[in-house]
Structure to design on (136 residues):
């Protein structure tokens, strides 16, 4: 899981680096970064949904909450291009909130919190760096 997770950080970390090295590409790299952030946010919500429905008696509240990351990601991605900084910082905030939810949730594998802390930290660094590059 760690190897897959760390490899999954490349799309968070490469766009800001490319944007820094090739400023004329910063708008394109910011778009790629936002899209990947939205996909990962949706993926995390789906993972929580899957964990819950695997239970003998899934809790409706958790199933409902697990749908919010996908909707939040979609809402952020629908912001206009002029709000790219808000998209990136909003995705960083949403990933952080999802991490906090995961850290407070019982029933997840014992290794999951430490993996999520590492991966969320990497994702947030990439998203915030991408937003900072846009601000110049």
């Amino acid at each position: 899981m760690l190897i897959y997770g760390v490899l999954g950080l490349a799309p968070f970390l490469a766009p800001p680096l490319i944007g820094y090295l090739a400023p004329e590409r910063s708008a394109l790299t910011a778009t790629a970064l936002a899209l990947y952030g939205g996909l990962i946010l949706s993926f995390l919500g789906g993972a929580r949904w899957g964990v819950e429905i695997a239970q003998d008696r899934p809790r409706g509240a958790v199933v409902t909450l697990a749908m919010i990351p996908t909707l939040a990601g979609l809402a952020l991605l629908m912001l206009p291009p002029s709000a790219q900084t808000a998209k990136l910082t909003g995705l960083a905030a949403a990933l952080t909130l999802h991490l906090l939810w995961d850290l407070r949730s019982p029933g997840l594998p014992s290794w999951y919190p430490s993996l999520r802390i590492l991966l969320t930290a990497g994702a947030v660094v990439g998203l915030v760096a991408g937003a900072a590059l846009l601000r110049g």
Notes: The two ends are 36 Å apart (CA to CA).
